[in-house]
Specification:
16 helices, binds pyridoxal-5'-phosphate, single chain, 4-stranded mixed beta sheet
């Protein structure tokens, strides 16, 4: 049914371009307007209730309506100092406190923090810093950045270039010419017959080594990885993968940048994915759950090696010529600080582990379902792959058909699902209750059964 004239939906079609959306289809279907939220649940403007199985965009860790406590902190900060910048030596207390806090909980010794507004800006900043660092070391030609196929690091020009998502490059004149991509560690999909996780990990680390050697180690600045790949499908790295990859990076003196934009702040059952998978990055980027998504804020944590190089550059050039109007915004930093306090009080990491077990055990119920192949998870993040043939792991054709169907039917059953091709990713808000997880699993069961019937018809 076409939207009523002058309704919000009609005005949306008239005026608004939506990100990551089929623009033609949107003109016909119009928007799904989300009206309000309560914990892990959102309601559309017709009053339909949905369980949000991926916390919006993996970010609304405390749910969809902020508590009085958070609202009060934002209000107080808005009234006291609603804006000030941090250029040219200016500072305000909330951003100082947040920087100190982040250094205090960093997974490896880190030296300093830079603030931005989004994960993309954090990753763009880290890429610029990798180049700045290499220039300070007297090797500006060491400028290639390696990401992974299906990796996702954002949508600004550099962050999307290091992402391994060809659909996001097509016709945007991207990726930038100094970006390279290596294989991604999806054991279930990519392993060869009889290959163990450890042997698969060795093969991937060898491929990275070969790529760096082929490009010339003196031309490779940095390697980017998400501890658990999010938009790639909630891919849990196979055993020994990061240990072997990090040995390759050390051998070639390549900086390691851990993108913790999804994994940071409890998602994998520890503060950082780096803790869970023993990563020792030179830089770490985070966003999303940093403020429980209530304010747009991101951070880059840098180690002393990178900071010393920046000091030398700033001496040479007169200043560190990088930053944003809203870097370390007082309201965003005040809210993030309060969110981190709340995470500590609720033992976010313990809660993620406990609820994650409940989610993963529940998903494992579908192990025998004819539509379900891989089921994998860590902390409160999990992936489920839809297949046509469980033995050969072959999917339905065309690719994405099963995923689209499950998405539509899940929606009818009151689930907001995150479907990536034929894989489902789960990363619900940490405030989800066990009974809501049960409700979600029941909805999934109906969804899988109905989708299977339709695919088999
Ligand atoms: C791992 C990762 N890095 C970076 C980003 C980009 O973050 P933003 O959308 O805040 O720019 C995302 C967004 O989903 C992400 O998943």
């Amino acid at each position: 049914m076409p939207p009523l004239p002058n309704s919000a939906a009609a005005r949306d079609i008239a005026y608004y371009v939506h990100p990551q959306t089929s623009l033609r289809q949107h003109r016909e279907s119009g928007p799904v307007i989300i009206d309000h939220g309560e914990g892990a649940v959102v309601y559309d403007d017709a009053g339909k209730r949905y369980i949000e199985t991926v916390a919006g965009l993996w970010c609304a860790s405390l749910g969809f309506s902020a508590s009085e406590r958070i609202a009060q902190v934002a209000y107080d900060q808005l009234r006291k100092l609603g804006y000030y910048h941090t250029y040219r030596h200016r500072a305000h207390e909330a951003s100082i406190d947040l920087a100190e806090k982040l250094i205090g909980i960093a997974p490896v010794p880190m030296s300093k923090v830079l603030f931005q507004c989004s994960g993309s800006e954090a990753n763009d900043t880290a890429i610029k810093l990798a180049w700045y660092y290499q220039a300070a070391m007297g090797r500006p030609q060491k400028n290639k950045i390696i990401g992974r196929r299906n990796g996702y690091h954002g949508n600004t020009i550099a962050a999307v270039s290091v992402s391994g998502k060809p659909d996001m490059h097509a016709d945007f004149n991207l990726p930038l010419p100094m970006m390279r991509h290596t294989e991604f560690p999806h054991y279930y999909r990519q392993h060869q017959e009889g290959e163990s996780e450890a042997a698969f990990a060795t093969r991937l680390a060898d491929a990275l080594d070969a790529l760096i050697i082929a490009e010339g180690p003196d031309t490779v600045a940095a390697f980017f990885a998400e501890p658990v790949m999010g938009a790639g499908g909630a891919i849990i790295p196979p055993k020994t993968y990061f240990e072997k990859v990090q040995a390759v990076l050390r051998k070639h003196d390549v900086l390691f940048i851990a993108d913790e934009v999804i994994c940071g702040f409890g998602r994998t059952g520890n503060w950082w994915g780096c803790n869970t998978f023993k990563l020792e990055p030179d830089m770490l980027t985070c966003a999303k759950a940093l403020s429980a998504a209530y304010q747009p804020i991101s951070a880059v944590l840098i180690n002393d090696k990178v900071h010393q190089a920046m000091l030398a550059q700033s001496d040479k050039l007169g200043s560190f010529a990088h930053g944003y109007t809203h870097s370390g915004h007082p309201v965003a930093t005040a809210v993030a600080l309060e969110v981190l306090k709340i995470y500590e009080e609720m033992d976010i990491n313990g809660r993620a582990r406990r609820l994650g077990r409940c989610l993963l055990d529940g998903l494992k119920r579908f192990s025998d379902h004819p539509l379900v192949g891989d089921i994998a998870g860590v902390g409160l993040i999990a992936g489920v792959e839809l297949v046509q043939d469980k033995r050969t792991r072959a999917g339905y054709t065309p690719a994405g058909r099963a995923g689209k169907l499950v998405d539509r039917i899940g929606n009818e059953h009151g689930l907001v699902l995150r479907v990536i091709g034929d894989r489902l990713a789960f990363a619900p808000p940490f405030v989800i209750s066990e009974s809501q997880i049960d409700e979600m699993l029941t909805g999934l069961e109906h969804t899988f059964d109905a989708a299977y019937r339709e695919l088999s018809a």
